[in-house]
Design brief:
Elements: H1 3-16, H2 21-32, H3 43-60, H4 63-67, H5 76-98
Helix pairs in contact: 1-2, 1-5, 2-3, 3-5
Length: 101
């Protein structure tokens, strides 16, 4: 499975609510290293987006932290999930470009 496919699978599992906090954070930590061995233009952008996604994941899986984003009747957890999924989509696109796709 390519890196962008792994990211898309992670996003799907998060959307469905079928992945645990520990599995999500472990996968993000592994994904952050996906291009570590190569000096490619754009690798920093990829690493940054995965890092941001990990931060959002940590907030998403914490009721206390995610509730700080509650606004106008919208659940903070759902809002944070949107930020997380957006960063994953961006990271997947960067990964696809880095893979030459």
């Amino acid at each position: 499975m390519t890196t962008d496919e792994r990211i898309k699978t992670l996003a799907t599992n998060l959307s469905r609510g079928t992945i645990s906090r520990d599995d999500t954070l472990r996968e993000l930590d592994e994904l952050k290293l996906a291009f570590d061995d190569r000096q490619l233009a754009g690798t920093g952008n990829y690493t940054g987006k995965i890092g941001e996604a990990r931060t959002w994941a940590d907030i998403y899986f914490s009721d206390r932290k995610s509730s700080q984003y509650d606004e106008n009747g919208m659940s903070g957890r759902q809002k944070v999930k949107g930020f997380l999924l957006n960063d994953l989509a961006t990271a997947a696109q960067i990964a696809k470009n880095l893979q030459g796709g």
